[in-house]
Every structure is written in structure tokens, then in C-alpha cells.
């Protein structure tokens, strides 16, 4: 199914949802914001937050682990080098929209302390995604490519898992040094990703408290 077809299908389901919830258009306005604008901003916030949260959960705790356990290591690394820039771009854009929408609905001057904290969590998630996108990801990809070159000389990298790398590093000081540097950069990238995920997780608790099912 083409991308435009999938997008059109999602819009169609959204339109059906509006038909099944017509009372939202008769809700009271919030200050100077019209009901339709208010609902649209809240929808943008909800969809962008849910997208960032869902993508982060999948990539961090499920998809990446499954790929590492089943793909040859160099193939896994090359796939990650293409996927992570798109991943951090998507999460960053979604966090930016979610933060902007939340800030519009809850202006800083009139926001409660809890609302200011939530805006801070969303902005921090956005910031950590940007740090990963523009700092740690390029460094990680560059070091990965250099390490792949050395590993090909050692005739390793087509296996699943990192056991052959560890064995080769015992007799190859250059590979051992690369492993150490790669591990440090990758660790900082993972930490930044977890900080972004943590900000989204704290906001999810806030949103759950606002539900009235």
C-alpha cells in the first residue's frame, strides 16, 4: 500500500471519529480560543505525543533488540545508521509540536506549577532528541563505519552478536580502542535517548490523570 493511501486511510478514520463525537464542536471555548481551534490544538498535541511515545517505546525496548539478536552485525549497524536519523527527527518534530500545542493551551504566565513542569518535560524530550540527531548519531555512525573497516580486515562482522568482535579485539589493539570509543559514544546516545523517553513517560502520567473515562 502506497504512503499516500495509508495517509488517506488515517485521515478517513479521523473524519469518522469526528462524526461519532459531534458534541465536541459544541463544547465551551477556553478563553479567547474557539472550540474548534482548541480541539484541533489538543488533537495535534495528543497525536504528536502518542507518536513520539510509541516510536520511542518500540525502537528503544523492542525493535532494536529483536534486530540485534537476528541480523548479522554489520547489516544491523548499517540499518541502524539509516533508521536512527529518521527516528530522532520524527521524535524531535513530534515533541516540538506537542510542546508548542501544550504551551498554547497553557500559557506560561497563567499555567500552574504542574503545567509548567509538563512543558519542561516535553521541551527536554525535544532537546535530547536534537542532541542525539545532531551530535551523538553522526559520531556513532562515523565510528561504526571505521570499526566495520577494521572488522572486515579481520574477516568478521557477518555473524549475529558480538562474540567474534570481542575475541578479535584481544589481539588487535586498534579494534580494542575503537570498541572503547564506540561504546562511550553509543552509551551517551543511549542515555540521551532514555532521557527523552523519560520526559515523555512523565508526561504520559500527567495525561492519564486528566482522563475522564
TrEMBL record:
Enumerate the InterPro entries for this protein. TMEM205-like, Xanthocillin_Biosynth-Assoc
Q: Name one Pfam family in it.
A: DUF4149
Q: Which residues form the TMEM205-like domain?
A: 47-148
So where does this one cross the membrane?
Answer: 42-66, 86-105, 117-137, 188-208
What keywords is this UniProt entry annotated with?
A: Membrane, Transmembrane, Transmembrane helix
Subcellular localization, as worded in the UniProt entry: Membrane
**Domain of life of the source:** Eukaryota
Where does the UniProt entry say this protein principally localizes? membrane
Which protein is depicted? Answer: TMEM205-like domain-containing protein
> Which species expresses this protein natively?
Hibiscus sabdariffa (roselle)
Amino acid at each position: 500500500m502506497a504512503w499516500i493511501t495509508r495517509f488517506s486511510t488515517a485521515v478517513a478514520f479521523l473524519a469518522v471519529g469526528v462524526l461519532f463525537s459531534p458534541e465536541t464542536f459544541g463544547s465551551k471555548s477556553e478563553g479567547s480560543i474557539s472550540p474548534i481551534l482548541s480541539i484541533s490544538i489538543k488533537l495535534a498535541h495528543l497525536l504528536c505525543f502518542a507518536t513520539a511515545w510509541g516510536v520511542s517505546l518500540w525502537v528503544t525496548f523492542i525493535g532494536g533488540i529483536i534486530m540485534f539478536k537476528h541480523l548479522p552485525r554489520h547489516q544491523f549497524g548499517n540499518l541502524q545508521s539509516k533508521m536512527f536519523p529518521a527516528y530522532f527527527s520524527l521524535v524531535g518534530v513530534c515533541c516540538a509540536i506537542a510542546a508548542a500545542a501544550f504551551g498554547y493551551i497553557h500559557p506560561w504566565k497563567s499555567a500552574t506549577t504542574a503545567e509548567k513542569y509538563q512543558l519542561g518535560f516535553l521541551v527536554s524530550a525535544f532537546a535530547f532528541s536534537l542532541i542525539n540527531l545532531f551530535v551523538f548519531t553522526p559520531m556513532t555512525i562515523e565510528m561504526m563505519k571505521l570499526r566495520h573497516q577494521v572488522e572486515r580486515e579481520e574477516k568478521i562482522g557477518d555473524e549475529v552478536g558480538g562474540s567474534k568482535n570481542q575475541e578479535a579485539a584481544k589481539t588487535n589493539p586498534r579494534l580494542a580502542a575503537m570498541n572503547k570509543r564506540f561504546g562511550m559514544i553509543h552509551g551517551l546516545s543511549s542515555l540521551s535517548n532514555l532521557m527523552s523517553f523519560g520526559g515523555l513517560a512523565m508526561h504520559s502520567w500527567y495525561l492519564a490523570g486528566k482522563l475522564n473515562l
